[in-house]
Amino acid sequence: MHKNATTKSYIVGFLLSIVLTLAAYFLVANHLLADKILLTSILGLAVVQLMIQLLFFLHLGKEKKPRWNLMILISFVGIILIIVVGSIIITSHLNYNMMPKDMGQYMLQEEGMQK
Question: pTM of the full predicted structure?
Answer without folding.
Answer: 0.59
